[in-house]
Structure formats: structure tokens, C-alpha cells
Amino acid sequence: MDKLETAFKGSILTKSRGVTNEVPTQVKNQDLVTQRRGQIIEAAVPLFVANGFHKTTTRQIAKAAGFSVGSMYEYVNSKEDILYLVCLSIHDEVERGVTSALDHAESGLMALRQLIREFLMVCNRMAEQIQLMYQVTKSLPSQWKRRVLENEIGITQMIVDALKRIATTEKLEGISDGEFDLLANNITIIGHMWTFRRWYLSQQHSIEEYIRFQTEFVLAAFPVKMKQGKK
Amino acid sequence: MDKLETAFKGSILTKSRGVTNEVPTQVKNQDLVTQRRGQIIEAAVPLFVANGFHKTTTRQIAKAAGFSVGSMYEYVNSKEDILYLVCLSIHDEVERGVTSALDHAESGLMALRQLIREFLMVCNRMAEQIQLMYQVTKSLPSQWKRRVLENEIGITQMIVDALKRIATTEKLEGISDGEFDLLANNITIIGHMWTFRRWYLSQQHSIEEYIRFQTEFVLAAFPVKMKQGKK
DNA sequence: AATCTTCGACTGAACGCTCAGTCACTATGT
DNA sequence: ACATAGTGACTGAGCGTTCAGTCGAAGATT
């Protein structure tokens, strides 16, 4: 019989946390695959964060996940599979954070402020994982590398859409698609910068100060760009 | 962190060309050490860029450098030593680029435009190496990791100094040290972003468009009329 | 000049070890 | 009885690192 646990976890975990037809498995029971892959990911992330992908051994992961090497390889075909699952999972969590940030959207420029704040808070919370993604992407098999990079762009695209929505409600015209795109990219990497340089930046600035400064920084450019019209 | 230290950088500069007392060697002849380490670095960089640090073998490096493994280990105590030398070398090249950019400085806001342009051009030229640094820093022994991270901040500090100089010649007051710092950090990572996302960004924007947009973006935050210099 | 000695850069086969991945076997549940 | 899930000792390739030995050049000795 299905354990309660299995059903419970299975409902929480999205496809990226476990079942992907891209990553085939020996085990038939899909719920079990989902659950075990969830365990693998949960075990692997902190190990990768602490020791990096290459210095982490499959045994460490298996042990931390609570089963044997052999068993782990029933759910995964290679160590790189694990890396890919981890990347999907991190992306997923970031995306969820951004989505929920966009959900409390107010309107107008206040929404922009809020967007920036919440995005930076997500980055602050996920700092280690975001750094991991930067270090690790190159080690992925190339078809998956591509997908992970595109996922990354996907998040920026969510910001683009939000910006466009804000611009229309604010009746701001004359911003080209390209400008929206670059603006969203800037916001994204302002978040990522905090994850890379927090060790240094936080000596002088709290996350709150950082948010305040960067909000003004972005807002200074936002209306200005439109009044200027085309470059 | 001091301006003194920035001026002092010259000594590190020569060290990173090969000879560092931090990295001891078996070989007596210092000139030879410098030369051979240069060869090692030149051989290692493209390999690291193409395959990553962990997937590159010491044999590959030795072969590409033109001598045997054993000989290489006369000039270096471990594979991580090589990584450290590579990091110093890359930092050095970036710093040289930035320095020369600051040398043709004009004055006023035009100088700021030029600073941004030249820095972004340096990033564009050094894209692969900059990416490598991001991926690799974590793999360094911790005392060297620290030093490499501080070097990175050092470059941002050069931009801070330049900004301050510009602000004083422009009689711009009321900008706090913290704001200069964050502004310089933003410029830095705007450059780094191009290295990470060039594969995507360059589909829509040439480097020139990117520079133009980012220049306006940064200048918008510099609280005065900069519109006259629009190029 | 001819021979011997010392020196130090250079070599690459060999060593010891790690670790991803396998497989013959056991346990469990239906 | 059968299918499915789980185990962990085992394998072998690949790695960083070492070290006994080579070689040519530069003194030193005859």
C-alpha cells in the first residue's frame, strides 16, 4: 500500500522536483520516483553548496538521502542527472518565489518597488543556491545546460512582463522591447550581485539599505527612459 | 581597502606574472620560474575555460605547456597552485585593462561615459576568463580564495575612486561613500552580466547598443543633467 | 686539452588512491 | 510465486602526485 508519506510528498513535489521524462529511471512506481528524487535533491543541495559538485561523492549523497548507492542509481543514471535535478529544483523554487512576489502586485510604480524588493528578498534567501547555479552550469551535459540557461532567461522574462504591465497602467509609452529586456536583466543581476558580494557588501549595507538604494537606482532610469523616448 | 593599497597593487602585478613567494618552488633560477609559470598559465587558461578546472588534468596542462608532468611539479606544488596562478593572471589582465581605461580619462561626465564604455569593452574581451573566475573561486584553498575575492573588490574600488574624482570635478555633492560603492558595484556587474548572458543578449543587442543603454541607465542615477552629452 | 665531477632542470612510468557505476543477492509486498 | 525495490561489496578507469633516473652544460682536476 501507498504510505501516507508517499502520497503526501508526491503532492508537494512538482515535476521538476522528481519526475521528468527527460531523466529515465529503472523504477516503475512514479510516486516513489518522485519521493526518492525529492530526497536525493534535498540531500544533494547542501552538499553541493558546501563542497561543490565535483568534490561531493555519490556515496555522500546516498548516505545523506538515507539509502544506498545502488538504490540511488535506480532513480538516476549518473551523477550529472542529480546535478540536473538539483538545477531544476532550484530554478523551481526561485520561480515560485518570483511568482508569489508578482501575485501581491499592487499597481503603478509602487508595484515596481514591491517587485524589486521581493525579488531581492528571494535572492537573499536563495543566495547559496543561486551561486551554485553559476558555478555548476558549465558541468552539465550540453542539452541540459541549454535548458537550464533558458530557464534562467525565463525568470527574467517574468520580470519583463511585469514591467510591461506596470508601464501600460502608468501610461508610459515609447519603451522598446529591447529596453524592457535590458531593464529586467539589470534587476535580475542586481539580485544576483547581492548573492556574490554579500560577504563584502553586508559589511557596509544591510539588505534593507541595499534594496532601498537599488530601488531608487532602477526607478531613476525607469521614467527617464520613457520621457527620452528612442535612443 | 585603502587607497594606499590600490597604489600598492603594482607589486602584486609582477608577482602574478609567475613569481610569488606565496607559491614556493623547487627551482632555483627565478627567471626560469617566471618564464615557465607563464607557460603553465598560458596553457591552463584555455583548458580551464573549455573544460573547467576539475575536468582538466595535470597531464593536459603539462603537455600544452610543452613539458612533462614531473617538470611542471617543479614549478608548482599542486593543481590548485595552478588555479591560483591563473586567477592572479586573469585579475592582472582585467586590472591592466581598467587602468588603461582610466588613463585616457577625460573630465566630467564624459569621463564617466568613457569609463563605462571601456570597462564594458574589457569585460567583453575577457568574457570567458571572467566567467571562469566565477565558477572557480570556490575551489581555491581558503586563504587564496580570500585573496582572489579581495582582488575582485579592488577593481570595483578603482571604479569608486574614478567616480569620486568625477563627482568632485562636477561639483556634485551629497553622494555618500556607500552610494559611490554601490554605484561602482553596479557598473562592475553590468559588465559581468554581459559575460554571462552574452549568448542571449547579443541576439537582440550589439555590444554597442548594450553600452549605450547601460550608460544612460547609470547616468540616470547620477543626479544631474547629463543629457547634453548623449552620444 | 682531456677527463672527471657536480649541478639542476627535466622525464615519464609507476604508485596509491578515489570514486562513479554495476550486479548478484536479499527483502518486501501482493 | 512473482515482481519490484533495496543493498553494498566490487571493479576498473582515471586522477594527482612522486621519484629514480637521464642528460647536457659548466666548473674542477689532471
Written account of the structure:
The structure is a homodimer of 231-residue chains. Chain A is elongated, with a radius of gyration of 20 Å. Helices cover 75% and strands 0% of the residues of chain A. Chain A folds into two domains: 4-77, Arc Repressor Mutant, subunit A; 86-228, Tetracycline Repressor, domain 2 (Orthogonal Bundle). Mean pLDDT of chain A is 84; it is low at 1-16 and 224-231. In chain A, helix 2 packs across helix 3, helix 2 crosses helix 5 and helix 5 (79-103) runs parallel beside helix 8. Chain A contains ten helices and no strands. Chain A has helices at 4-12, 30-51, 58-65, 69-72, 79-103, 108-125, 127-136, 142-169, 177-204, 207-228. Chain A is mainly α and 231 residues long. The A-B interface holds A 52, 54-55, 134-136, 138-139, 149, 153, 178-179, 181-183, 185-186, 189-190, 192-193, 196-197, 199-201, 204-205, 209-210, 213-214, 216-217, 220-221, 224-225, 228, 231 and B 52, 54-55, 134-136, 138-139, 149, 153, 178-179, 181-183, 185-186, 189-190, 192-193, 196-197, 199-201, 204-205, 209-210, 212-214, 216-217, 220-221, 227. The structure holds a DNA duplex (30 and 30 nucleotides).
Order of helices and strands of chain A: HHHHHHHHHH
Number of helices of chain A: 10
Strand portion of chain A, in percent? under 5%
Fraction of helical residues of chain A: over 70%
- The CATH top-level class label of the largest domain in chain A: Mainly Alpha
The name CATH uses for the topology of the largest domain in chain A is: Tetracycline Repressor, domain 2
Reported for the largest beta sheet of chain A, the result is: none
Q: Could you report the average pLDDT of chain A, rounded to the nearest whole number?
A: 84
Largest interface by residue count?
A-B, 40 and 38 residues
Assembly type: homodimer
Shape of chain A: elongated
The CATH architecture of the largest domain in chain A can be given as: Orthogonal Bundle
CATH homologous superfamily assignment of the largest domain in chain A = Tetracycline Repressor, domain 2
Query: How many separate domains of chain A?
Result: 2
The radius of gyration over CA of chain A amounts to: 20 Å
How many beta strands in the DSSP annotation of chain A?
A: 0
Poorly predicted runs of chain A are 1-16, 224-231
* Class from secondary-structure proportions of chain A: mainly alpha
What is the end-to-end distance of chain A?
66 Å
